[in-house]
């Protein structure tokens, strides 16, 4: 099936057109700076050169129109698009699985939007635009939180007053669920089913872990929002929650300033003082920059601690898989994390760890108690598979 996958943000819109049968990606790109001066589209076809097209994108509707136009110009008959898959950041309590877009399901995306205001409103608008512009194409909502929705209550419940959590729908929702689902699926296929307790490590500029037992999610490191858990590019991850109150009371920051600080000015960026990008930090540490080295040490420490926490939620683990920007590309980060886990019997084959490839691969030694893999993620493909499944019904 030819599926267009759309990932809309407040000022951006990523797209990918792919065939679920062949997995071929016809085209992909990103509309940037929507509603802001200097908007443009980065577009590439069938793995060709990336083109930067400077076009006025005053709103999301223009961006969607432009995506269809650019695909038509590239020689792809957009009448052959059979479904559109929409990534939605927050599915709240309505999307334990992906759902076909109807007035009702679209209403749910807006209803839970206060939990992810920067994303859900824009996503809902784009879904509505697609329905209006292309009424004959089916649309599917794939929420990033779905995979985590059925983790055990002891894992998702917060120890706050019940009336408060009930009224405001406070719980662990997690994120990166589509990626973790894909990582489980691929790991299981690659190991011919010989995986039962997997710690899935999605380590990109946003980063989270999931404990997956026989395909079922048991726990994850992100919480009510994607700020919780690991140290990330610019996010602080887990800290004492009272720090928020202290910053407001004693530091004189507004609550919005604290929000920005914790989401955009913290994490590896704050620790290194250099960059949020692991490549720059690795280069800095190589040159003897102590803050960069501390950023790396803390990343290894926290990530390994939380891997052990995920393993605890399954009473053990037989496999772990590294994925996303850092997990797929940084041999140094993988080794740093794995070394912290040596006491649990994790052993990395340093040569295998250095191999670069787009394919899933094992990087642990044969005598390692836990198999360690690198599994390139592919959220778009996972979304497209959901579209195919739901629209073929
Ligand atoms: P997201 O999708 O959350 O924006 P990605 O999964 O693309 O993030 O990961 C981005 C991060 O991955 C970068 O900030 C960088 O730290 C790291 N990264 C990407 N490519 C490489 C690479 N070739 N080598 C090392 N790190 C990389």
UniProtKB/TrEMBL annotation:
Query: For binding ATP, which residues are annotated in this chain's numbering?
Result: 14, 202-206, 277-279, 325-329
Annotated keywords: ATP-binding, Cytoplasm, Kinase, Magnesium, Metal-binding, Nucleotide-binding, Transferase
Q: What is its main location?
A: cytoplasm
UniProt-listed InterPro entries: Ac/propionate_kinase, Aliphatic_acid_kin_short-chain, Aliphatic_acid_kinase_CS, ATPase_NBD
Q: Per the record, what is one GO cellular component?
A: cytoplasm
Active-site residues per Swiss-Prot or TrEMBL entry:
144
Which EC main class describes this enzyme?
transferase
User: Binding residues for Mg(2+), per the UniProt record?
Assistant: 7, 379
Cofactor dependency: Mg(2+); Mn(2+)
Q: Which GO terms describe its molecular function?
A: acetate kinase activity; ATP binding; magnesium ion binding
Cofactor note text: Mg(2+). Can also accept Mn(2+).
Question: What does the entry list as the binding residues for substrate?
Answer: 87
- Catalysed reactions, semicolon-separated: acetate + ATP = acetyl phosphate + ADP
Subcellular location, record wording? Cytoplasm
**CDD domains with a match to the protein in the record:** ASKHA_NBD_AcK_PK
Pathway this chain belongs to: Metabolic intermediate biosynthesis; acetyl-CoA biosynthesis; acetyl-CoA from acetate: step 1/2
Task: List GO BP terms, alphabetically.
Answer: acetate metabolic process; acetyl-CoA biosynthetic process
Q: Which Pfam families match?
A: Acetate_kinase
| Residues at the site labelled Transition state stabilizer | 176, 235
EC code: 2.7.2.1
**KW Oxidoreductase (keyword) present:** no
PANTHER family per the UniProt record, alphabetical: ACETATE KINASE, ACETATE KINASE-RELATED
Subunit and interaction comment: Homodimer.
Q: What does this protein do?
A: Catalyzes the formation of acetyl phosphate from acetate and ATP. Can also catalyze the reverse reaction.
Q: Which family does it belong to?
A: Belongs to the acetokinase family.
Protein name stated in the entry: Acetate kinase
Report the gene name. ackA
């Amino acid at each position: 099936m030819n599926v267009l996958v759309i990932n809309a943000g407040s000022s951006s819109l990523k797209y990918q057109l792919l065939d679920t049968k062949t997995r071929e990606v016809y085209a992909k790109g990103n509309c940037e700076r929507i509603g802001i001066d200097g908007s443009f589209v980065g577009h590439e076809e069938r793995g060709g050169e990336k083109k930067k097209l400077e076009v006025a994108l005053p709103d999301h509707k223009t961006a969607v129109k432009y995506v269809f136009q650019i695909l038509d110009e590239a020689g792809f008959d957009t009448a052959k698009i059979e479904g559109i898959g929409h990534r939605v950041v927050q599915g709240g309590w309505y999307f334990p699985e992906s759902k076909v877009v109807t007035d009702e399901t679209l209403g749910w995306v807006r209803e839970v939007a206060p939990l992810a205001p920067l994303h859900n409103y824009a996503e809902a608008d784009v879904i509505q635009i697609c329905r209006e512009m292309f009424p004959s194409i089916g649309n599917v909502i794939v929420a990033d939180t779905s995979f985590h929705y059925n983790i055990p209550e002891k894992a998702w419940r917060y120890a706050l007053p019940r009336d408060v959590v009930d009224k405001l729908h406070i719980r662990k929702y997690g994120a990166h669920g589509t990626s973790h689902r894909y990582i489980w699926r691929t790991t299981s296929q690659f190991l011919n089913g010989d995986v039962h307790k997997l710690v899935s490590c999605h380590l990109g500029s946003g980063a989270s872990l999931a404990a997956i037992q026989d395909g079922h999610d048991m726990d994850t490191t992100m919480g009510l929002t994607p700020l919780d858990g690991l140290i990330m590019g610019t996010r602080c991850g887990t800290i004492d929650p009272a720090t928020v109150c202290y910053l407001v009371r004693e530091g004189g920051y507004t609550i919005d300033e604290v929000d920005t600080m914790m989401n955009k000015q913290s994490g590896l960026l704050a620790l290194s003082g250099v960059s949020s990008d692991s490549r720059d930090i690795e280069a800095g540490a190589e040159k003897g920059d102590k803050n960069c080295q501390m950023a790396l040490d803390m990343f290894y420490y926290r990530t390994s601690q939380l891997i052990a926490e995920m393993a605890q939620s399954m009473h053990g683990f037989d496999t772990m898989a590294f994925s996303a920007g850092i997990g797929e590309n940084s041999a140094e980060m993988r080794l740093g994390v794995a070394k912290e886990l040596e006491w649990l019997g994790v052993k990395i084959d340093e040569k295998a760890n250095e191999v670069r490839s787009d394919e899933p691969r094992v990087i642990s030694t044969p005598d390692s108690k836990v198999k360690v893999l690198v599994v390139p993620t592919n959220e778009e493909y996972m979304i497209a598979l959901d579209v195919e499944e739901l629209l073929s019904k």
